[in-house]
Structure formats: C-alpha cells, structure tokens
Amino acid sequence: KNEILIGTSGKGLLTFDVNSLSFQKKSYGIDKTINIVRCLKRDRNGLIWIGTDGVGLFKIKNINSTRPRVDNYTNDSQTDLSISSNAIYALMEDENSNIWLGTAWNGVDVLSLNKDYVFIPSTSKGESPISVLSVYKNKEALFMGLDGKGLTVFSEKTNSTKRYNSTNKNSIGDDYIQYIYEAQDGTLWIGTFVNGLVNFNYKTGSFTPFKQNLGDSKSLSFNDVRYIVEDEKNNFWIATWGGGLNYLDVKTKEFKSFKEKTGSKNTISSDNVLSLQKDGSLIWMATFGGGVNLLNTKTNQFKVFKSVEGNPNSISSDYLYSILKDSKGNIWMGTAGEGINLLDTKTQKINRFDAFKNVRYQTVMAIVEDNNGLIWFSTKQGIFNYNYATKTFKNFSNLNEDYHINSGFKDEKGILYFGCSKGVVKFNPEIIKVKNVTPKVKFSSFKLYNNEVPIGEEEILKKDISLSENITLKHDQDVITFEFAAMLFPSSASCEYQIKMDNFDKNWRIIGKEGSATYTNLSPGDYVFKVRSRELGSEWAREYSSLNITILKPFWLTWWAFLIYTILGILLFYVLMKYIISWEKMKADLRFEKFSHEKDVELYNLKQDFFTNISHEIRTPVTLILSSINKLLKNNELPENQQPNPFGTIKKNGEYLLNLVNELLDFKKLEQQKIKLKVSEGDFVIFSQEIYLSFKEFAYQKDIKFEFESSNPNIELWFDKNQMEKVLYNLFSNALKFTKAGGSIKLSITETDTQVQLELVDEGIGISKKHLSKIFNRFYQANDADSASGAGFGLGLTISSEIIKLHQGEISVKSKKGEGSTFMIKLKKGNSFFDETEIGGSEINDELIENYFYAKQENSVAIEKILSNKEQTLLVVEDNKDICNYIVELLSDEFTVLQAFNGKEGLEIALEKSPDLVISDVMMPVMDGIELTHNLKSNVNTSHIPVILLTARASFNHKMEGFETGADDYITKPFNESLLRVRIKNILKNRSLLHQKFHSEDTNDLGELVKNKKDQEFLENLGQFIEKNIEQDNLSVILVAQELGMSHSVLYKKLKTLTGLSLVEYIRDYRLKKAKKLLKTKQFTLNEVCYQVGYSDRKYFSKLFKERFGNPPTFYMKEE
To answer: Beta strand pairing status for 470-473 and 509-512?
Structure first.
C-alpha cells in the first residue's frame, strides 16, 4: 500500500504514507503500548517482525488485512523456552528461515518457525519443567503422569488444568504416575510408583486404590505398577516392577500373581515386568533381565525368549523396556542399549536389524503404531519410524528429546504423543517430515595449554580462528585445543561431533556433544584437523571444516643439525671401528689363549686318567706277583694238593706287564715319530686269516660266533706285517672283550681296483654318540659303566689309527649304544705312495697273540663259594680272578668266604646271604665298587654290613668318594695281607664292642649308637612297634618281621649284627628296660609294671629281671 513502517524511540511504531507523505500511528492489532522500537524485519514469508525495548518481540501476519494476526514473544524467567530478554536490538533471518534476535544484555536468541510438531510443556509458566512418565489423550482431556508432581489433566475445551497429587485428600495418593489406561467403562486405571493400581473416575473425581497387603495373596503383589491391559471380560493384566505379572478380577476385586519361581520350568523369568501386549489369549511381556515372556492364559504355560550368545535368531538382549504387537501380528521389542528386535510370529524368526547402524544399539523407550502401519520408536537419541513397505528406518532429528519408558500414545485421530523430560511432543505422523540437516561447523577458539590464543600473539593467529586456514607452532607447543560449534540453530545443542587429525588419528572419532578437542604430544610435522557434525541419529555430513597445523622441528632436528651429526658420526665411526678392531683382535687373542689353555687342561686330564689307569693296571699284576712270592716264602708246609700255583700267576702277570710296556714303547715311538714302516707285498687275506684263527679258540671259549669272509681268496697288498698285526690284534681283542656270550663277530675283506677294505662287525656294548668322535684320540677313554669291562688305558686305538695313517689309509667307526660297532679300514693298492726307505719286510709277532691269552683270559664263572664251617662270612667282589682267588685263599682259613666278579653279582649275593663284611674292588664292570657300596648302605636289609674298598686309585678325592658313599675302610693296592687281616678284625671287633654298648645301656633309645641312617631308622621303627604292642605277652617274631617288611632270616641277621641279640632276646631286653624305668618312678605297683610290659606271671618276670640287672624289682622300688 506504499506505506513504510518506521520504528521510533519515544513514539513507538509509525506508518509513513508515500502517496500522501504523511505519518500515522497504527496499532496493527497490537494491544500493548509500544514506546521504543529498536528494529524491524520483513522475512521471506511476508511476516513483519518488530523488536521493542521493554515489551519483547512482535510477529504480525497479514499486516494489510483488517484483522492481522499478532504474536508477542516475551521473556519468562521460569523457563528456558522463552526469549532471554524483552529488549530486542537486532533482527536477522538465516537460510533455514530461523529468526535471530540480538538482545540488550542477554546475547543472541534463535526463533525457529519451521516446526511441524507441537511441544506441550509439562508445567505452567513460572514453573520448572517436569519429566512426563506417562501420557494419555481422550476426547475430554490430555493426561500427563509426572515424575514427582502427580497427575496433570489439561482440557482443551475449557483451556483449564487440574492437578492431582499425594497432598490432595481423597486423591491419587502418589506423585509418580507411571502409566495411564482408559477402560471400556470410561474410567482410568493408573499405575503408580508406591500407591499401587488406582482407578480414577474422571467424571466424578473419585479414586479407588488397589495396593499390596502383606500376607494377603489375593492382593496386588507389588505397588510399583508399570503397565496395564484389559481383556475381553473387562478384567486387567498389570505389569509390576518387583512383583511380576498380576491379574485383577474386577468383580471379586481379587488379584492373582505370577512371580518367578526358582527351580521351576513353567515360571515367569523375571519379576521386573515393564510392558505388556495382549494377543487373544496370549500375554506378551517385556522384562528387565529376563527377556521376553509369553503367557498362555488358557493353559497358564510360559514361554521365554532370551538372548543366546552366538545365536542370531535370539533376541539381542534380556533387558527390555518396551514391547508392541502390531497390526500384522508381529512383535516389536525395545531393548536397553541393544536396539530394536522384530519377531515374525509366523516364522518365529527374529530380526535384529544389524545392518541399520543408526538403530542397532539404541535404547528404545516406547513403541507406537500409527494409522498407516508405520512403527514409531522413542529412544534416547530421538524418534525413529519403520516402514514395512520400504523396510527402512527414518530418523526425525528435529524431535530429539530425552524420552521416557512407555510414555507413548496414539489418540483417536491418529496423533502421536511422546512424553519427555520437559513435556510432551505431539505430532501428526502423516505431516511431519524428516529433516536430516547436515550442519556446517565453525571454529570458535584455539588454545595452547588450555589458554586461549589471542589474535596476533606470537603470530600464531593473524586473524580470527573462524577465518584462519593455517596455524604454525613451535616444537614445544604440543598441547592444543580446538573449540567449535555446529551452525544449526536452535538445535545445535542436540548435535554431536566427529573429529580426525590426519597423520595422527587413523580413523574418525566420535566425541559426543562436547564442542572441543584436545591433542597432546604431537610430534613435529604437518597435520590437518578435521571436524564434522550431525543431529543425533542422523547421518554424518560429508563436508567438514578443517585447519592445517604445522609443528616446526626443534633446531636439533633441522637439516644443518643433521649435517653436523653426519660429520660427527663419521668421526665417531672411524674412532669406534678402530677401537672395535683393536678390541676384537684382543678378544681373538684371548679366545686362542683360552682355547690353547683348555686343550692343555684337557690333555693334562687325559694324561692324568691315562697314568691313573696305567698305575691300576700295573698295581694289579704287581700285587699278584708279590703275593705269590710271599706264598712261596711262607707256606711250604701245606700238603701238595692244597698248595697254590704261584708260578703260573707270576708268569701270566709278568707277560701282561711286558705287553703293557710294549704298548707304551709303541706310543712313545708314535709321539716321537720314530715308527718306520717296512712294507712288503703279501697276501692280505691269508695274513688276516692267520690272526683271525689265533683268536678263534678264545671266541669259542666265550661262546661267541666268530666269522671270516673275503670277496677273493687271495688279495695282494703292500703293508707292514708287524705293524698291521698290532692293528688287527687290537681290533679283535676289543671286539672279543666287549661282546658278551651268545653274540657274534664278523671280519669281511673286499677289494676294488684301487683299494682293499676290511670291515669288522661285532655285537658288543657299542659306543655312545658323545664318545664316537673321540675314541681315536690319545689317552681318551669312554667312562660308560659298561665300557669298564676289561678297560684299557686309551692307547690301542690311537696306535692303530696312527699305523693306518702311515699306510696312507683310513680308519673309521660306526656304532650304536647297546647294539655293537663296525670298524672299517681302507688301504690303497700298490706301493707308489710309500717312501723308498719304507719298502722292506716284516714278520708276524706270534708272541703278541700268545701273551694275550695268558694276560687277559676271562672266566665265565660268576660266583664261587668256598665252603667253610667258620662262624663269620665275608664277601669278596673283584673283577680280576687272580686277585679274587688270592684274597679268598688268604682269608678262608678264618672266615667263610663268598666271591663275585662284579658289583651287580656282589649286590645279589649280599641281599641273599647277608655276609658279615664285604671287601670290594672299586673299578669293575657292570657295577663299580662305589655304586655297590651306595646300594648296600641305602638298603635297610644290607645297610648294617661293613664295606672295605680295595683299589689302585690312591688319591685323596677317590678315598673321599668312597667314605662319603658309606665305606668303612679304604685300602690301596698293592696291599699287605697282614694289614688286610687286621683291618677286617678291627671292624668286626668294633661290632662286638657295639653289642656290649647295647647291653650296658638302660635306655631303649639306641639309634644314636649306629652311624648309618638306614640302621638308625630300622632300630627306631622296631622300637616304636614293640612300644606300641608291649602289653601283649605273645608278641611273635613273624608279626614283627611282617611289620618291618623283612624276611625272618634277614631280620634275625641284621638285628644280631647290630645288637648281638636275636629278635626274641631283643624284645625281652626291651621289656625289662622299660620295666626298670617304670619302677624307678615309684608310681606303679609291681603287678602294674608287669602287665604294662607284657608279663602276666610276676614270679617269671622277677626271675628274668634279676638275671638281667642283678637286683630284684623291689630293689628299685625302695631305692632313693
């Protein structure tokens, strides 16, 4: 109309008519006096906005009509839903048609006009908002159940509000209204927190409560009521928290409860029921912790649906808030944090909607179906709906509120209501639209170490952060904070943010609604900070806001610093390499010196063992020679048939010593490289066969299969017969030595065009893998127990190896422990490789073979018992038969002597015969003397037997080893026979003294008188058994032997050896000593003492007592 609106300070709103050039003051329907107008605005929809100073904001629609519509927005200090000030100084419209208000003292307000929903506050102006726990709408009013403020009823017809709470008399009786249901008769049934179930007649204003009466099973089971449904008979099913499911018969006013029963299969799974749905005769229940329950009201049978880990056809959680049966007969379930579940009642399949990430982990508070079959869900992040046709979810971000459990309702017109923390959201589902706005983000602040950086300071920010694109920082400015906000008003508070720092974060990170992000310990480099936003439940914006961040390197990481480092590094490397080379050279010298020292020590130890063995080998024949000579000088008066044959012994051992010396001389020649070959051409087969035949008789005596074979009957070869004889002798003797009776030895000779090969295979004890590579070394000997049989001193194979090498041949061995050995010799044909001085002739040394049989012949007899009527028995264990026979012959005139030729045989005889004393060599096959002593002393049946060790090993360490094992004496070979006799008699005499000591002691605690631990344990166990059974007068020897686990003969022999008493004598002596001890206490009568020590005949007891102690029992009863 060619009019201009003008806002004035003092005269309010004026109109200037352009045509008439006149001013007019018009009200435009405004019923308030306006004196000061600060701003005016016409928006894109033609609405006129007027900002005043004192009376708020005015909106005029259809300003040119006769009756324009006027809305006045003023400040209400009791609610944050009003504008913040009545002084409006500036107006602006944004791209989303929101009106921005600049106020005088309270900042900026935003007024949104594009709402397609209605928000109904839960309280009146001037009151703080209250959460709406339940909502219901009928033709008469809107009912809101409040959290702590009772029931609010708003009538649209009368525009009036009524409130009912616990303070009103004859009212609802509770301030927490959790569910509202209208029955067929028009009355309301209300679920409360503490007042149970309440029936409200809205027309009459009367309330009828139904509460729990303790002890009355026909009353409500619990007062916390959460949900109510009505059946065909107008009776009610009630869900309670803590009381399970209840059924109310309206006519009888009686309740029936269904509560969880432990151990029962047909029971509700949880007493915390939050939501119900009726499906004919079926009742569906959502429980918190017990999954979904289904009750058949006809059969009273329960079916439970629970979450099963790993089973996608189970519900996603047992904790549910809401449940709905839709028009298709399917069941919708809302969980606490595990999203939405749909049960197809026809197929019984469950859909968890895993593919929909925006709903998969939602907390679903209420579920409502609209008139078009869309399913609506109120959640902690707003409202969603599901469309069966498109099988999709939509998120209504403009409806983001904090909704409550079961606070959802559809009225008769299809309008939906959802209760939230400030009131009720009301909308028409056919009109409301999805507004998935993706807001832009603006930076608002930049901080270092939590302090805001002003523009221009240290040149970090040259302009406002919202306009900046790049920020450069020093290396120590590594704690930075960005602040930002979503440009979506007035809904920016419901926006959440996602951030990412390129070159630091691998993926985008959701940080919630907090509009700030802090990074610490950022390394020098280039980064890009990105941030984007979305309304809760909607999709993330594709666009993002970003800032380029550069953190400079410290000076020590710059290029010129690295140049200096490189120069210094080269110098350091040069110095270091020089040092390392010097150090490595010194270490190499030390390793060589250490290696040389270790070799010297190894050689020294081998020589020590070598000479120890030689001394042993020499001592034994020397002992026999000297002993035989002593016999010749001493015992000429024996009858001829009892005289020993010392000459054969002397000759045999003298020849053995000669053979030993010959080996030593050969070894010395090898050491000094003085052995010279004298080779000549000969038939190697005949040569080998002659040596083989010389050993065949000995093999026959040992019951060994001895074979010889050759690929050709005659093989010509150049070799030194004398030296090669030593090689074959050594191999044959070793094979025979280590092969047991029943085994086999085979010598095979084969030839090729260039060489002759000899192979000797035996079934002996074999050589272990760890010794195999060392057996040709000088002085080396295997220390295996089995190899001790006939052990030499480590020269034979060394000499053989050196002789083969002089022949330009090869010698090798293959062996496996316990299965035998194979020695192979390879000799070249012809003589071109021999020196001219080595070509000559040699003969076989037949004496060498002959001496072998006299010096080392072994007898297969294992044990020989020399019969005697002597009282005491000795056992001699010695692997050398000559020594053994000599000792037996020496001692048999005074003792009964048993003999064995190795430790194992000796142990078996000792266990069987229990001798009075054992004399044993140390170095023996199968089981040596040290092991024999250990076995004897650790066995209770033989621990009492004294042991004397005989050995050529005379060092302190060897003696200590013997004594530590339990040996009673240690005598070095060669020994004096008189010394041996005296040592034996002294040990046996000490036994006699020990027997006297036993007899003289009054106490029965005699374990301390013996040295061996096993003997001490034996006496202690025997004493304990007698003490336990001392009152028995018929304590038998057999019973004692069974208790101690010994045969009667072994027990008798052991006890006799230790105490000088038989078992019967020892028991009698034990009883009498115990009686003497009791009599001395003067606490018992003579009869009592008799019975306590196992005697029923007092006279017999007194006689034995006097014989033992020299005084009658009464003497000790009277003694002071």
So the answer is: unpaired
Q: Do domains 3-114 and 675-701+721-729+747-855 have the same CATH topology?
A: no
* Average pLDDT of every residue of the chain: 84
CATH architecture designation of domain 675-701+721-729+747-855: 2-Layer Sandwich (3.30)
- Say which DSSP state 266 is in: S
Question: 3-class SS at 284?
Answer: strand
Structure tokens at 489: 């008003």
Indicate if the alpha-carbon torsion angle 999, 1005, 1011, 1014 is positive or negative.
Answer: positive
Q: Tell me: the pLDDT tens digits for 110-127?
A: 887 767 788 888 887 667
Q: Give which of 44, 43, 101, 97 is closest to 73, Cα–Cα.
A: 101
**CATH class of this structure's domain 3-114:** mainly beta
Q: Within 13 Å and on the Cβ side, how many CA atoms surround 895?
A: 22
Separation of CA 400 from chain center: 49
**Two tokens at 959?**
């003696």
Burial class of 311 by CB neighbour count within 10 A (0 to 12, 13 to 18, 19+): exposed
Q: How far is CA 84 from the centre of its chain?
A: 64
User: Is 740 a residue whose pLDDT tops 60?
Assistant: yes
- Rounded Cα distance between 176 and 178, Å, is 6
Question: Tokens 């806002």 — which residue?
Answer: 7
For residue 53, the SS3 value is strand
More confident residue, 372 or 988: 372
| Strand, helix or coil for residue 52 | strand
How many CB atoms neighbour CB 156 within 10 A? 11
**CATH code of the domain occupying 863-996:** 3.40.50.2300
Which residue, among 882, 826, 797, has the nearest Cα to 624 in the 3D structure? 882
Average pLDDT over residues 437-462: 85
Distance, in Å, from the CA atom of 246 to the CA atom of 236, rounded to the nearest integer, reads: 8
Q: What is the DSSP letter of 873?
A: E
Predicted local distance difference test score (pLDDT) of residue 635: 56
Phi, psi of 39 (to 5 degrees): -160, 155
- Residue 615's identity, in one-letter code, is S
Tell which residue, 923, 930, 948, 956, has the closest CA to residue 616: 923
CATH architecture of 1001-1118: Orthogonal Bundle (1.10)
Q: Quote the Cα angle for 208-210-213, to 5°.
A: 140
CB atoms within 10 A of CB 446: 24
Q: Which of 493, 552, 180, 515 is nearest to 366 (CA)?
A: 180
451 by Cβ neighbours in 10 Å (0-12 / 13-18 / 19+) ranks as exposed
pTM confidence score: 0.46
The predicted-structure confidence for 862-891, as pLDDT tens digits, reads as follows 223 333 336 789 999 998 888 888 888 889
Q: Which CATH class is domain 132-427?
A: mainly beta
Chain centroid to Cα 1055, Å, comes to 55
- How far is residue 1017 CA from its own chain's centroid? 44
> Which is nearest to 449 in space by CA: 470, 476, 468?
476
Q: For residue 1112, say if its preceding peptide bond is cis, omega within 30 degrees of 0.
A: no
CB-CB contact of 654 with 621 (8 Å): yes
Identify the band that residue 672 occupies on the pLDDT scale cut at 50, 70 and 90: low
What does the domain layout of the chain look like in residue ranges? 3-114, 132-427, 441-557, 559-642, 675-701+721-729+747-855, 863-996, 1001-1118
| 1016-1049 residue pLDDT tens | 777 888 878 877 887 777 777 777 777 777 777 7
DSSP secondary structure string for all residues of 1001-1020: -S-S--GGG---HHHHHHHH
Q: Which helix (H) or strand (E) holds 816?
A: strand 810-816
Q: Determine the Cα–Cα distance for residues 28 and 72; give it in Å rounded to an integer.
A: 13
Rounded to whole angstroms, the Cα distance separating 1010 from 1012 reads 6
φ/ψ of residue 24, rounded to 5? -135, 155
The fold for domain 441-557 equals Immunoglobulin-like (2.60.40)
pLDDT of 849 over the 50 cut: no
